[in-house]
What does this fold into?
Amino acid sequence: MKTKIIGVLGLGIFGQTVAQELSKFEQDVIAIDNRADNVQAVSDFVTKAVIGDITDIDFLKHIGIEDCDSVVIATGNSLESSVLAAMHCKKLGVPQVIAKARNSTYEEVLYEIGADLVISPERESGHYVASSLLRHRITDIFEIESGISVVEFKVPKSWVGKTVVQLDVRKKFELNLIGTRDSKNATLKTDFSLNHPLKEGTVIVAIANTNTFEKYDYLGYFD
It folds into this structure.
């Protein structure tokens, strides 16, 4: 297994969680925060835990940030700090800089100054909670890229006994089927017949336009 060196700048709850998850998979993690208690909280499981100023390029260079494969700027409260940290990481040659943003304005600015990916944990968490509450048939969604996901869903009652050809799912629902499962955790079967009637309890796995498919499911069109 190839080990990466990953910097985590800012060790609030989000930063600590990122650092801990990366460490579970035996990655080399350099964790930085200006508060001693936050640094202490991760010191037992990361490769290097340091108290310091993430806006100081000389400090970042001294602790080896330029050797990182990726850096996660996990502080989202101060736009100035996030911008300076991102700019310094890029100047030091870090190939991938991921930054946390508290709102769309922060997100826009961070992209403008060169961040490779900007995430909003609060927004993503809100979407996940709402999605979980609204689902009827969807059991899992795995996003491939923006707007496109692999979706797993239970066969709707109105589909039982009909074939994929009869249902014309690609045209009606923008679905491209990958395979089926006999139940939620069963082995994926990719050799299914498009002309074989669907059974109750079957789980379909497909590539879908997430927004379109979620709308159909959340509004109960598949019941």
Notes: The chain has two domains: 5-122, 130-218.
